[in-house]
Request: fold
Amino acid sequence: MERELRSGQAEFAGHRVAYRVAGHGPALVVLKNDRYSTVSVELRLLSDRYMVVQISPLGFGRSDRPRDYPRAGIHEHVLSVLDHEEVDRFAVWGYSQCGAMAAAVAQATPRTAAMVTGGFSLVDGGPTDARLARMDREQRVPVAPRAFWHWRKRFDWLDELAAMPCPRLLYVGREDRPAALGIRGSRDALTERGVDVIEFDGLDHRTCEREPALSTRVVPTVVDWFDECVGTTW
Reply:
């Protein structure tokens, strides 16, 4: 995999969107918002089956951090990379805040073949209105996450999930509070709208996205779900 790993950048609104690519096969976008970990575990684990495209939207990871943050949605940053790589159809996967971003991408473009969100309650997750107002007032949180949360609050996500034509998977560690509690509270509504929900016993928010749980439990489960719901090509 190390021989195949390459870095790239695409342009959106005059700014640089950073990404990494490894592997061959159906395109799987893995969203990354951490500037310190340059290669995600998912990229290492999945590049033998998929063309994994690890993307950091503007304001996150190693992408540019513009002060005049574009008003377009996160999906536009992702599509700028995929257009640069000449990728049409893709699945998208994100965890925690990036899980909310994955849902935003799937909501915004029919090019999404499947969506996987981990560790985030899609119905009621994210900052409250009061907390977001405080974040805006104090400006200790960078503009990019604040812009994303404001954008996300424009939608009723049960309606948005119901309207998505692609298969959707939501997973969480059973010990991940409050995400697990939020997901359990909305599980019936989610499944009625065609969202598959999986809980992993014994995992919390941190352990669900790290080794050894990723390689032994999470990734195999998601790959099996891809095979069942989307197939081996998309």
Observations:
- The beta strands are 6-12, 15-22, 27-31, 51-56, 90-95, 112-118, 168-173, 195-200.
- The CA atoms of residues 24 and 93 lie 17 Å apart.
